[in-house]
């Protein structure tokens, strides 16, 4: 990162974003990627995968006692998911704001959930909810060799470098 100065550490923050099976089925991958791209965040990892029960049980470990957990697993394994890692200043918090409330009924228009879905059980996208969770989720979903460190040539349009 030699080209960035000492104030640039924060712009390397990363988060895990996943287009869930309903989002893939509904052909929303492109529109969802566009929301992150147009905001100025940088894509550093991307893949389509059929998620295993094992990965999901680790990913949603904190929810395993919830009544909706079995249907959540069924939903998340019902078809392919598109997993991504996005990078940028404050990307974890900003992504949660781009995505909107877990319950789409509470998500305002302009957010991804507020624009594209109706019910909490089919809310089209996942976004890590803290920097710590983002680090754990990225390590769970991606090999380090699948993450690309690259410099966007127009960084100066988004940051004071
Ligand atoms: N979920 C559900 N019913 C609920 C709560 C959650 O089906 O009552 C699902 C929903 O897909 C949600 C996921 O479980 O996105 C994970 O829940 P969490 O509370 O972690 O919300 P998120 O971080 O995805 O906004």
Automatic annotation (TrEMBL):
Binding site for ATP: 20, 68, 96, 102, 113, 123
The protein's Enzyme Commission number: 2.7.4.6
Keyword presence, Zinc: no
Residues covered by the Nucleoside diphosphate kinase-like domain: 12-149
Molecular function terms from GO: ATP binding; metal ion binding; nucleoside diphosphate kinase activity
UniProt-listed GO biological process terms: CTP biosynthetic process; GTP biosynthetic process; UTP biosynthetic process
Catalyzed reactions per annotation: a 2'-deoxyribonucleoside 5'-diphosphate + ATP = a 2'-deoxyribonucleoside 5'-triphosphate + ADP; a ribonucleoside 5'-diphosphate + ATP = a ribonucleoside 5'-triphosphate + ADP
Record-annotated active site: 126
Cofactor(s) listed: Mg(2+)
Signal peptide: none
GO cellular component: cell projection; mitochondrial intermembrane space; mitochondrial matrix
Localization, UniProt: Cell projection; Mitochondrion intermembrane space; Mitochondrion matrix
Keyword tags: ATP-binding, Cell projection, Kinase, Magnesium, Metal-binding, Nucleotide metabolism, Nucleotide-binding, Transferase
Membrane topology: Peripheral membrane protein
This protein's record includes keyword Nucleotide-binding: yes
Family indicated by similarity: Belongs to the NDK family.
Identification of the protein by name: Nucleoside diphosphate kinase
């Amino acid at each position: 990162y030699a080209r960035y100065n000492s104030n640039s550490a924060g712009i390397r923050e990363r988060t895990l974003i996943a287009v869930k099976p309903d989002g893939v089925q509904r052909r929303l991958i492109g529109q969802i990627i566009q929301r992150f791209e147009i905001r100025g965040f940088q894509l550093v990892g991307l893949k389509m995968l059929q998620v295993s029960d094992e990965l999901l049980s680790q990913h949603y470990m904190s929810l395993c006692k919830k009544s909706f957990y079995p249907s959540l697993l069924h939903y998340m394994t019902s078809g392919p998911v598109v997993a991504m890692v996005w990078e940028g200043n404050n990307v974890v918090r900003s992504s949660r704001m781009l995505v909107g409330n877990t319950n789409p009924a509470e998500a305002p228009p302009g957010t991804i959930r507020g624009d594209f879905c109706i019910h909490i059980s089919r809310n089209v996208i996942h976004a890590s909810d803290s920097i710590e969770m983002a680090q754990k989720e990225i390590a769970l979903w991606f090999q380090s060799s699948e993450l690309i460190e690259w410099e966007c040539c127009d960084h100066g349009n988004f940051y004071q470098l």
